[in-house]
Amino acid sequence: MGKFNHILYSYLIFISCLINGIRSLKLTDFLVPDHAVIGSTVTLKCYFDVAFGTLNSVKWYKNEHEFFRYSPSISDIIAFPADGVIVDLNSSDKNKVTLKEINFNSSGLYKCEVSTDLPDFKIAFDSKNMSVVAYPEWGPVITDVAEKYSVGQTITANCSVAPSYPSPTLSWEINGRPVDSWDVSDKEVPGPGKLSSRRSTLQFIAEDQHFEGSNQALNIRCRAKLGTLTSSTLETTFTSTLAQSPDSLESALQRYRNTGAMINGTSHNITAVILLFLLFITRKVL
Fold first, then answer.
1. If we measure between CA atoms, which residue out of 213, 237, 33 comes closest to residue 140?
2. Is 1 part of a structural domain of the chain?
3. Which domain CATH number covers 182?
4. Residue 183: domain span
5. Average pLDDT per consecutive 10 residues, the chain (286 residues; last block may be shorter)
6. Is there a contact between 55 and 151 (Cβ–Cβ < 8 Å)?
């Protein structure tokens, strides 16, 4: 009987420890945004379950410096000075902290720490980094592009975007296809404070293959992206079309040059000569 009581007692202790392990203090939801826009208001959230314990305090830290505390033992929530942190006490409680007037110094590691009272003193915490960004007020904008081009012409397009943070990067596409880097020159322009803008120039020779579809359209797209932010891509597109007569004759001639038809037989050579003659006569008349 004594052995049975010992086994039963050990089993009850095991079950008690198991229940306490399952039903102990834990964070159930923790939210700190990856990015906050400068000048905006953000809310940090920290939800928890104290299980069988009694809440002692909820503390928030920025870079390990405490700036907010809630405790049932005190009548008011407390905010402490911290670089880049302005707490809106009217919109904050034990589960959330609202920060207003976000500035570049607001970037940092934010941690929520929850503790329970004695004798069941436990601590649970989580942390996450938040970065402050400044989106450009305008752009990207494509300039210096004509509405019509002829095959063989040099096309120069400029793309610019307003100052932002992180520094923007610009990329180009022609008819939906990425442009080779050697066709592009790029320059960063310092702005006020941490802000900077960027200007990019794309230059290439118009070829017959660039003008697609029944309307013979050439689509040039410029994309702006802030650092590594996946949700910060902005873009703009400019459409040019193939110039018509007399350049349509020159386009036809260019197609012969591109395909090498001028060396594939006498009939093709005669066709090329006729095209050159018509092009010469047309320009004389015009």
1. 237
2. no
3. 2.60.40.10
4. 141-242
5. 46 41 81 96 97 93 97 87 97 97 97 92 95 95 96 96 95 94 91 94 95 94 89 91 63 52 46 51 45
6. no
